[in-house]
Design goal:
Blueprint: H1 2-12, H2 19-30, H3 37-41, E1 64-68, E2 83-87, E3 91-98, E4 113-121, H4 124-128, H5 130-140, E5 147-149, E6 157-161, E7 169-174, E8 180-186, E9 206-215, E10 221-235, H6 239-253, H7 256-259, E11 269-270, E12 272-273, H8 281-284, H9 334-343, H10 358-363, H11 366-373, H12 375-385, E13 394-400, H13 404-413, E14 426-430, H14 435-445, E15 453-459, E16 465-467, H15 470-474, E17 480-488, E18 495-499
Parallel strand pairs: 2-10, 13-17, 15-18
Antiparallel strand pairs: 1-3, 1-11, 3-8, 4-7, 4-9, 5-8, 6-7, 9-10, 10-12, 13-14, 15-16, 17-18
Helix pairs in contact: 11-12
Length: 500
């Protein structure tokens, strides 16, 4: 108490303008020796403490605490928010700690809670244009995510979910009573969102935010419990280490008086309490297998993925393609691309590819599509897009033999010479080595009604007719040539095709 009274005398005497000089004198009067500024700040003399103040004015005790294992920057002024540098793609641990006092939130005892980790913009201006910023980033980095969870290194996380449309968020369940650590990887760097990219620009800061929810009576995790966040900047690999070292060296060159204006660097970053991210939990946290909207879903015209049974926003109920056929062509417009996706059962990704033309979609590699749509749908979409390059298993050439009456007319007109007739062959490409495939392709090539073809024979030795079977087709030599003729069936219904 004597220390506090003595400091009041110093303040009243007007000596605070030279605080460092005053400290040594005060220390001598008190017999405590010289104190540095850090020692004084650690004392409660600058707090206007009054025992008469009610206890409810104390800081509210948060139920959870999230600690990221990455050092804070030493070049942050006192009372400013901490800043942490991260390397692109490196795994960083976030420890999920139960901070409840006895009796706090008893309804979650023995139950799981759900946490959503996001990387979002710190700058308010970029938050307003978040949708456009992320659209541009996805265009330049197809198939990449802004945030990933390093599953092999994470501990205690259950039911991890990442959605193709939510490139900046991951969600999982965890038990507050057990040791839980989530290892995150941030893949976007701060300079990717600067207006000018000529080198040397100051990168924009991001925020890592964790929102935690408890389960409601209907089984959904939508009841908000706690939110906390911290400010970060992301550099290319090893860039964060260099920046941390540069800041440390700059601080070492400052005078003791200047250092007192800055925070010390801490080995870990404690996320501070904040308001929940303005997503509606019922739209982000979705227990159904259908994809949920992205984090900008608070707006009605935002970028989100619909249910698998929904259709394109510009073509409600239109599931047919307008002249595009089964194959998506590079010249297809955005509208035609949307219709192609619907026709080929990719309606869950119509909004994800809402700005893609046919050429844009065809440029994506197999790896890109797997990362965007997941393994099953990604491979299926890749195969559908690249179906034009599927090579046939067998190619044969077939020409229809002219009728005998036509041959006689040509012989009479050409003085008995029929060798000048031109035989035009059609290429038949077989994707299946089956007799039914031969029949179907012959009907298509020569405009023959398929239901009128009874059998297909091959003419063998001494003019015998051999039924074309699957085994015979499998033994055809590639690029074999055949003449074929037709004969009426014995029952007078339809006809047979004979290959020669």
């Amino acid at each position: 108490m004597a220390w506090v009274l003595k400091m009041d005398e110093v303040i009243e005497s007007g000596l605070v303008h030279d605080f460092d000089a005053s400290l040594s004198g005060i220390g001598q009067e008190l017999g405590a020796g010289a104190y540095s500024m850090s020692d004084v700040l650690a004392l409660p003399i600058f707090k206007q403490e009054d025992s008469s103040l009610p206890q409810e004015n104390e800081t509210k005790h948060p139920p959870f605490q999230y600690v990221m294992c990455a050092a804070t920057s030493p070049a942050v002024k006192l009372y400013d928010e901490t800043l942490t540098y991260l390397n692109q793609g490196q795994s960083y641990e976030i420890r999920m700690l139960d901070n409840r006092k006895a009796g706090d939130i008893p309804e979650i005892n023995g139950k799981l809670v759900k946490s959503i980790i996001r990387v979002v913009f710190h700058d308010r201006r970029l938050q307003y244009t978040e949708h456009q910023q992320l659209e541009g980033w996805k265009w330049n980095r197809p198939g990449d995510r802004l945030l990933d969870l390093d599953i092999p290194m994470s501990v205690g996380v259950i039911d991890i979910k990442t959605n193709p449309s939510q490139l900046n968020a991951v969600e999982f369940l965890w038990d507050p009573t057990k040791c839980t650590s989530a290892f995150i990887q941030v893949h976007c760097i701060s300079t990717e969102f600067t207006p000018r990219k000529h080198g040397g620009e100051k990168g924009v800061p991001f925020r890592i935010q964790v929102d935690t929810f408890k389960q409601t009576e209907n089984g959904e995790y939508t009841d908000h419990l706690h939110s906390a966040s911290c400010q970060i900047k992301v550099f290319k690999p090893k860039g964060a280490d260099r920046k941390q070292k540069t800041d440390r060296e700059k601080m070492e060159k400052r005078t003791a008086h200047e250092k007192e204006k800055y925070q010390p660097s801490y080995d870990t970053t404690v996320l501070t309490e904040c308001s929940p991210w303005p997503d509606t939990p019922t739209t982000f946290v979705n227990n159904s297998p259908t994809p949920a909207p992205t984090f900008t879903s608070a707006q009605h015209n935002t970028y989100s993925v619909p249910d698998s049974n929904s259709s394109s926003p510009n073509h409600q109920g239109d599931g047919t393609s307008q002249g595009s056929g089964d194959q998506l062509h590079p010249s297809a417009t955005i509208q035609e691309t949307q219709q192609w996706l619907l026709k080929n059962r990719f309606s869950a990704y119509t909004r994800l590819f809402s700005n893609f033309s046919g050429a844009d979609l065809l440029k994506l590699t197999r790896e890109d599509l797997v990362q965007i749509c997941g393994p099953a749908d990604g491979i299926r979409l890749y195969n559908a897009l690249k179906s034009r390059s599927v090579r046939p298993r067998l190619t044969i050439y077939v020409c229809q033999e002219p009728l005998r009456s036509i041959q006689l007319e040509r012989q009479e007109a050409g003085s008995g010479d029929s060798n000048g007739a031109i035989y035009v062959y059609h290429a038949i490409y077989l994707e299946e080595m089956a007799a039914s495939e031969v029949t179907r392709k012959l009907a298509l090539a020569f405009n023959i009604p398929l239901h009128q073809i009874n059998q297909v024979y091959r003419q063998g030795p001494t003019g015998i007719h051999i039924l074309v079977s699957d085994q015979m087709v499998q033994n055809f030599q590639d690029e074999s040539c055949f003449l074929f003729t037709t004969i009426k069936a014995e029952n007078g219904e339809g006809f047979h095709i004979i290959l020669k």
